[in-house]
Design brief:
An 8-stranded antiparallel beta sheet has the order 7-6-12-17-16-15-13-14, with no helix packed on it. Strands 32, 34, 37, 38, 39, 42, 43 and 44 form an 8-stranded mixed beta sheet that branches. Strands 1-18-11-10-9-8 form a 6-stranded mixed beta sheet, with no helix packed on it. It is globular and about 85 Å long. Helix 6 runs parallel beside helix 11. It has 17 helices and 44 strands. Among the domains are: 196 residues; 197 residues, Immunoglobulin-like (Sandwich), CATH 2.60.40. Strand 15 and strand 16 form a beta hairpin. The N and C termini lie far apart (59 Å). It is of the alpha+beta class and 903 residues long. It comes from Victivallis vadensis. Pfam families: CBM9_1. This is Carbohydrate-binding domain-containing protein. One of its GO terms (molecular function) is carbohydrate binding. Keywords: Signal.
Length: 903
């Protein structure tokens, strides 16, 4: 059997020129969209049995080979010849190929989309819609159009696939996504051809005015004439001259605190305790709370202009008075912010002069130091203004996590750190960051699959041989059939038993202790004077407790990039407890879309609300005794057409204190100064913090408890609640909504009972579009579904899931959907009945205790939670409810409730 797929990507206009041919990259097929940018139509993931595996890609010129590390998966060979991509694959297992392409959020409110042959069409929404799915349908083509430039990309499939277009702001990601599902048939050869061609109009409308602002958007304070920029010099003098920050000690410390608290001056920033609270101390011995700002230097204000010059109303030549507004001599990255500064001052940009002015501004606003990603300049020393550089590392074993057991990595790390010896006596350095957002969870996932050429894999085998001694004992524990321990070096070692899972937890502790220990020892070899500020963890990686503990063991401060609508004291307390060190909130911010940018990582409605969010975040954090500072990201807004290094599809957010015209966001800063000016009263507990919550902020939830009665004689799973113990229901209502904008009237009542074999569930669900779920396997959660969470081991323990914890998905579209135990190699049978009705559906199920790894007995307590997933149409979830927990239930059991079995 052969399957042929024909894709054609074209750019249409009445008068057009040929655009660049597509090319193969490591990520997919790059399509040249002219002034719209370049787009990657990704190599497909392979989905079978509810699990999607991304391909391993090998590109050699015009040829790409895709392999999938799962049983019976196809191997795909792609050959690009001009604009034609031919592919073939031999298949064994049935499944689907899942292709996708991302479209920048900048097209919201103006970009148009359409599908054929039915002609369904629409406009990409400017604001986040109540439902994330813009289209879901079977069809043969997709078209994306920018009406401003009359450019379009068309992707055509010979035959029909299932297309999905969605707005990922529902999941806190500002981007649109196109997804295409195509079928893989078992035991056959399938061939497909993708043909890409593109045309661009000779002229396109201007999108960006000569000042780097949106051409067709008006807003208060928008620059329309160069004279306004020149007039800002006098206006700036008046504005900054009117600000009256409180007196501080040198380096921005608390005035008079050295004598008041008998603090020691060492010539370097250090840690201490004052009134039982962790504090930083300046080189001159004053109490210090870092109010830092990241990227106090031009950077993300530069945008990539090559190939889309037509969308800009004005661009200067490189050899001109605006030469310093370009980044590098290659003249492809241009900063309208710096161009406006040149217009304003009549002088070229020069880093030291610029930085001196910005430090003066920042101090007026109450900030006291540089955050991460800030260029070094001697101005900091003269101004006594602290900074926090990052240590340099090359690509490593997993991301930039190096292999601590590899001698080459150890030698290169030493070579990379040696230059910091030249700064060991520099008082401006508060401390060094090790890294930024490293993927710690990938170590335990990936190392077992490496071969014996990898030192980390050989180290794992050594630990296993030392523990088990005999290969038979290892095979029994891991469920494998290895001939000997030497053979393990080159064998993939799937982690599918509790013993294997526990071994990898032990290995993770060993690995991260070695890694962070090596980094710290090498650092202190060359610089014994400065603090080691941690590795700027992502919140999701706090569940890798071995990494948190090791980082805390060897670092002086634990740093976390903590984007959140509000401070969560319980979460930060957990990090402090695991790391044993003071915390630095090393990256966060809020933004708005008022001036045409894409808002922020976390949006507010206006600059005043942005200021309220800032105040609440900083003040609540400073009031915690173990938080020693924060770093706002960042000083400047990002460029309207995206930051330079991401080329055509870069981030373009309102994250700055000043905009592209060098004008400060005064409404925001008016609020921020209220907090910055009183930071030391907050830190020492002399005043209560300002607390503010935006609409949509999640409140703190206390884990719930329930009792489960014994089942009555004659219990049946038939969708009828007779006989059933006479207990009131537990409810899932709007207070339990953890994902989605609104409930849409959806909710549920549920009851539980038990006997020696099963846990029984009965749920009555209110749903205007009931029992719709076209998903299977591990994807059942994406549509109408009940989720059950249980943990029979260590019910008082919080944190990451234990090996014995279970997450069960029960489809509301019985019998096709069935059930699925997440991350379990063997699927146990679950008896379930679903009965749709006019207002929703009833779901009843019997779940074997054996599958939950729980031995039932009267009085037994175990961790428990129940979730409800809701979809309007079947393929995609719109909202999620949790009885006790949160949206992160599948990774962390801390918010699960507790259930107790009673007679």
């Amino acid at each position: 059997m052969k399957l042929r797929l024909f894709f054609m990507a074209m750019l249409f206009s009445a008068s057009a020129v040929l655009a660049a041919m597509p090319r193969l990259t490591e990520s997919g097929v790059e399509i040249d969209g002219g002034t719209m940018g370049k787009f990657i139509f990704s190599y497909p993931g392979f989905n079978t049995g509810g699990k999607t595996v991304k391909p391993e890609v090998r590109v050699d010129g015009g040829k790409a080979v895709l392999t999938y590390l799962t049983d019976r998966a196809p191997n795909i060979e792609l050959i690009l010849d001009g604009g034609r991509l031919r592919g073939s694959m031999k298949t064994a297992a049935e499944g689907k190929l899942i292709w996708d392409m991302f479209l920048p959020i900048m097209f919201g409110g103006k970009g148009e989309w359409a599908f054929g042959p039915d002609g369904k069409s629409g406009v990409f929404p400017k604001d986040q819609p109540p439902k994330p799915h813009l289209a879901q349908l079977h069809g043969s083509w997709f078209r994306f159009t920018d009406p401003q430039s009359a450019e379009s990309i068309v992707i055509t499939l010979d035959g029909k696939g299932f297309w999905q277009l969605q707005d990922n702001r529902e999941w806190k990601w500002k981007i649109f996504q196109l997804i295409l599902y195509t079928d893989v048939y078992p035991g056959c050869t399938q061939e497909f051809t993708l043909t890409f061609s593109s045309k661009q109009p000779e002229a396109v409308p201007v999108r960006v005015d000569r000042f780097g602002q949106p051409k067709n958007l008006d807003f208060p304070g928008k620059i329309t004439d160069e004279a306004q920029l020149k007039a800002d010099i006098a206006a700036d003098c008046a504005y900054y001259g009117s600000l009256r920050p409180p007196e501080t000690a040198p380096w921005g410390g608390m005035a008079g605190s050295r004598g008041k608290f008998n603090l020691k001056a060492t010539g370097f920033f250090r840690l201490d305790k004052v009134q039982g609270r962790d504090v930083l101390v300046t080189p001159e011995g004053d109490l210090f709370f870092q109010l830092g700002v990241c990227t106090v230097c031009p950077g993300d204000d530069h945008t990539y202009i090559k190939g889309r010059e037509q969308i800009y109303e004005w661009l200067p030549k490189y050899e001109s008075e605006y030469k310093t507004a370009f980044r590098g001599h290659w003249a492809t990255d241009f900063s309208f912010y710096l161009a406006n500064r040149i217009r304003k001052t009549g002088r070229p940009y020069e880093l030291d002069e610029w930085k001196r002015e910005q430090i003066g501004r920042l101090r007026k606003w109450g900030f006291n130091s540089d955050g991460a990603f800030t260029a070094y300049t001697p101005v900091n020393a003269a101004a006594k203004y602290g900074r926090t550089p990052e240590l340099f590392k090359k690509a490593g074993l997993v991301g930039d996590i190096g292999d601590p057991f590899n001698e080459t990595f150890r030698r290169e790390l030493d070579e990379n750190f040696a230059p910091i010896a030249g700064f060991r006596d520099d008082p401006t350095i508060i401390g060094y960051f090790i890294a930024n957002e490293q993927p710690y969870g990938d170590v335990a996932r990936k190392v077992p699959g490496f071969d014996g050429k990898t030192a980390a894999k050989r180290e794992l085998v050594k630990l296993l041989e030392r523990k088990y001694g005999a290969i038979d004992r290892f095979n029994a524990a891991w469920g494998l059939k290895a001939a000997n321990f030497d053979a393990l070096n080159d064998l993939p070692l799937p982690v599918q038993t509790e013993a294997a899972w526990n071994d990898m937890q032990e290995y993770s502790r060993h690995f991260f202790d070695a890694y962070f220990g090596l980094v710290a020892r090498t650092f202190r070899k060359y610089d014994p004077n400065h603090l080691l500020l941690g590795a700027r963890f992502l919140p999701a990686n706090i569940s890798v407790e071995a990494a948190v503990e090791a980082c805390g063991k060897y670092c002086d401060v634990f740093s976390i990039n903590y984007y959140s609508r509000s401070i969560e004291p319980e979460f930060l307390e957990k990090i402090h407890r695991l790391s044993g060190k003071p915390l630095l909130l090393s990256e966060w911010s809020f933004g708005t879309a008022e001036q045409g940018l894409a808002g922020g990582v976390i949006d507010t409605r206006n600059q005043t609300e942005r200021g309220h969010a800032y105040r609440s975040y900083v003040e609540e954090a400073a009031a915690l005794p173990y938080v020693v500072g924060s770093q706002w990201f960042s000083y400047l807004d990002q460029a309207l057409t995206g930051r330079y290094f991401q080329h055509y599809n870069g981030e373009c957010m309102n994250i700055g204190l000043v905009n592209v015209a060098d004008r400060p966001f005064k409404e925001f800063l008016h609020e921020a100064m209220k907090t910055n000016y009183r930071i030391y009263d907050l830190k020492l507990g002399a005043i209560e913090p300002f607390v503010w919550r935006a609409a949509g902020s999640a409140g703190n939830r206390t884990p719930k408890r329930l009792q489960i009665p014994r089942a009555l004689p004659g219990h049946k799973v038939d969708g009828v609640k007779t006989p059933w113990p006479g207990r009131p229901s537990e409810r899932l209502d709007g207070s339990c909504l953890v994902t989605g904008a609104e409930t849409n009237g959806t909710g549920a009542d549920f009851w539980l009972c038990w006997d020696e074999k099963n846990l029984y569930l009965y749920a009555e669900v209110v749903d205007s579009t009931p029992a719709r779920n076209s998903r299977t396997g591990a994807d059942l959660w994406q549509s109408d579904c009940i989720e059950l969470f249980t943990g029979g081991e260590s019910p008082d323990r919080s944190g990451p899931l234990l090996f014995s914890d279970r997450q069960l998905l029960i489809s509301a579209a019985q019998p096709k959907g069935g059930s699925w135990f997440v991350n379990q190699p063997v699927q146990a049978g679950v008896q379930a009945v679903v009965i749709p009705n006019a207002g929703g559906y009833t779901l009843e199920a019997a779940i074997p205790w054996e599958a939950l790894r729980i031995k039932p007995e009267t009085g037994l307590s175990f961790r428990f939670d129940l979730g409800l997933d809701d979809s309007n149409d079947g393929p995609k979830r719109l909202r999620q409810f949790m009885w006790s927990g949160v949206a992160n239930n599948s990774a962390d059991r801390s918010n699960w409730g507790t259930a107790t079995l009673v007679d």
